[in-house]
Write a structure and sequence with these properties.
5-stranded mixed sheet, alpha+beta, 13 strands, 21% strand
């Protein structure tokens, strides 16, 4: 669609510029031709009235009719003068003009027109000079050559204008539809992010709901499970809200506060407990360090970081496997998620955080979102491991005072 719009804008602009260039060229050609003709007529009028027959200007020849005898300029072309015009002027307009010429009456009883002799066009001016009829003929081949050069120049300008119009049209079209392109990219990105971000909460809610349904059929007390299901729906709503207000954390800095990553890790371990049991995987949470793993940020976003890393670990750990969430407090809070699953090649570590790039652990969209969240909180994330041994993801974030909780 964007390509079609860009082409349409480009073609429309090219047509407009081409029409403008063509119109300007046509006007220039018309003015030039009119100017050439007017100048030639003025020059011939002056030559006819004052120039000796023996010394005409270049490309011009003079002829005099006196007492029935015609005097000619040296080198005059054969076929000239136009006798009919000279006779007509000599007889005060009586007589027939040569069929090769079309003449109009000029000032002072002169006849002016064009004649073609021997395949060459001439502008002919005939008038009376005292008792003598004088005719001046100008070769129009130079004017024709000038006009052909003008036409070629105008054609070149038209082609250059068209190419320039296409180039300018491309540039302007790209700039004009850039916001639309960005909007479409953002829409696709939002759909992809929403699909990925909603998958894990929905999977947890589905697993929890299945567990509740099974225990209800068994007649067991499901109060705890229902409470966890309610908490899960609340977290799901937080994800939806965050997606709707976009991932621009800078705009939400005023709402940030201290977040205990240890508490989030323990909550997520419980929330994923049913799924982990179904997979035959054990989740362990370990707190280390002298202080609490407290950071300043958006709790819902940081919960998604832990959720994505834990979901990634569970998805690549087989039956009987383990996932360890280790948190270390201090000026720099470290969160480490380790599994003993399929592992990864350290050379592919960086590719895991590139959107839609296929890797050993999926397309990388989830981990790309994790990196964006971590960077927005002023932290870093790294990945490591070995194939068949397991993987380790480490998040480091600036710590904050636990007393502010």
């Amino acid at each position: 669609m964007l390509i079609r719009i860009r082409r349409t804008i480009t073609l429309q602009l090219a047509v407009v510029i081409s029409l403008v260039v063509t119109l300007a060229g046509g006007l220039a050609y018309g003015v030039t031709v009119s100017g050439q003709d007017a100048a030639a007529r003025r020059e011939l009028a002056v030559v006819t009235r004052s120039t000796p027959v023996a010394h005409p200007p270049p490309s011009t020849w003079l002829f005099e009719l006196r007492n029935g005898v015609i005097a000619r300029s040296p080198g005059a072309p054969a076929g000239l003068p136009v006798h009919g015009a000279m006779v007509r002027v000599a007889e005060d307009g009586v007589g027939a003009v040569d069929s090769r010429a079309v003449f109009t009456t000029g000032g002072g009883g002169a006849l002016v027109g064009r004649a073609e002799v021997g395949g060459t066009a001439y502008l002919v001016h005939t008038e009376r000079r005292g008792d003598t009829v004088v005719q001046a003929a100008m070769d129009l081949r130079h004017q024709a050559a000038d006009r052909r050069r003008l036409v070629r120049a105008l054609a070149g300008a038209e082609v250059a204008g068209l190419l320039g119009a296409l180039l300018i049209g491309q540039v302007l079209a790209r700039r004009a539809i850039a916001p639309l392109g960005e909007a479409l990219v953002l829409r696709r990105r939002f759909v992809a992010d929403a699909s990925h971000e909603l998958r894990s909460p929905l999977a947890r809610l589905h697993t929890r709901a299945q567990l509740v349904a099974r225990r209800l059929r068994q007649g067991s007390d499901v109060t705890d499970e229902v409470d966890r299901l309610v908490a899960g729906t609340g977290q799901f709503a937080e994800v939806v809200d965050d997606l709707l207000v976009s991932a621009q954390f800078e705009a939400r800095c005023r709402g940030w506060g201290p977040v205990d990553l240890g508490v989030l890790a323990e909550e997520l371990a419980v929330a994923e407990g049913a799924r982990a049991d179904a997979l035959g995987v054990t989740i362990e949470v370990d707190r280390r360090g002298p202080g609490a793993p407290v950071v300043r940020g958006a709790e819902s976003a940081l919960r998604r970081v832990l959720s994505a890393l834990l979901d990634n670990a569970l998805g690549h750990t087989g039956v009987g496997g383990h996932v360890w969430l280790t948190l270390t407090g201090g000026p720099v809070v470290a969160l480490t998620v380790v599994d003993d699953g399929t592992g990864l090649d350290p050379r592919d570590a960086e590719r895991l955080f590139v959107r839609f790039v296929a890797g050993p652990r999926g397309t990388g969209l989830g981990l790309a979102l994790v990196r964006e969240v971590v960077r927005a909180h002023g932290g870093t994330i790294t990945a490591g491991g070995r194939p068949g041994v397991g993987a380790v993801f480490t998040v480091r974030l600036p710590g904050t005072d636990a007393e502010t909780l």
